[in-house]
Amino acid sequence: MSAPVQAKFPMTAGFNFAIEANSDGARAGVLTTPRGVIQTPAFMPVGTQGTVKGLTPDQIKTTGTQIVLSNTYHLAVRPGVDTVRTLGGLHKVMGWEGPILTDSGGFQVFSLGHRNKISEHGVEFRNHVDGSPLLLTPESVLDIQARLGSTIAMILDECPAGGVSRDEVAKAVVRTHRWALRAHEHRSRLDLFEPMAVFGIMQGGVHEDLRKESAQQLLEIPFDAYAVGGVSVGEGRDALLSTIGLSAPLLPFDRPRYLMGVGGLEEFMIAVDQGIDMFDCVIPTRNARNASLFLGDGSSLNMKNARHKQDPNPVEEDCDCLACTRYSRGTLHHLYQRKEILAYTLGSIHNLSVFHRFLRKARTAVLDGVWEDFRDGFLSRLSLRSG
Ligand SMILES: [Zn+2]
Description:
The chain is of the alpha/beta class. Helices cover about 40% and strands about 20% of the residues. Strand 13, helix 9 and strand 14 form a beta-alpha-beta unit. The two termini are about 35 Å apart. The site of zinc ion has 8 residues, from helix 12 and helix 14.
């Protein structure tokens, strides 16, 4: 096996990443930011509109959340960056003092593909609200994130849909690299309201050689850390898992590796095993709003199912979340059936708690030197259930 890749440049002042233990590929790390410390591996709940839907900041915290993600594109459209700035920045708007990672808006742009026009300059976009134009460039997305007061900003990348030709993925790698260079150039001109790290994003689809090319180019640019982008775009489950496996080791061992837009206990297990440290995904909160609650073994319950109607047991016995310590499955069933707001709040609290607890257990297993047992035990129980 080749020696692990090391980062070539220091991190922004106020930021640090230390690995406390590693086992196979999995690592237990500590990412320090001026807004607080994040023990990794860590999951970031998504607060699309500047709010993790249905949860107060205190409730978000009790689930085990250390850092939240918010969406640059959505905030830029509504309420608008100037409004956020006038209100004191994104931390004030969200009522959240801890670290915030913002995406670049690139993913929304590409996922709402029919509304955009991509050129070398950037992406011209008609917003989904009133159709007015919004120009996202490598420079403007960093300006927006700086004005929001983001703790960790993401660069603009070109994220092609899954299933496009190899040729198109290769072009996206080249453009993403040119945009990354422009983003880096622009950092010295940013009007910062607080210290902000910037993460680069690797592309390359499911192609090993393109992933390598993208990583090699990206690592020559002094970003604070690097993310695996261009995944979870409809490439299919097997391709996703193999792409994680071939991408993670290409990124510096001594920096947090962020797998964008992927969530789920099995996905966490496989990705952490490959050396991924950070995750985000809308699934826990979105599914909670659809009455789908996760269990720690990777399965889930539909709380609208009539079999829960008179069940006095909690959703999960050993879960210490508000939903499980104070309410029964029967109560949750009733709240979901009646579409009570509390159902969405309790469901989101529970699902986030399950995700965070799983990653904390993974972290503890690495620290205790029993990672392989933990991983193999989980995966064999999973295959027994699905087999
Ligand atoms: Zn719970």
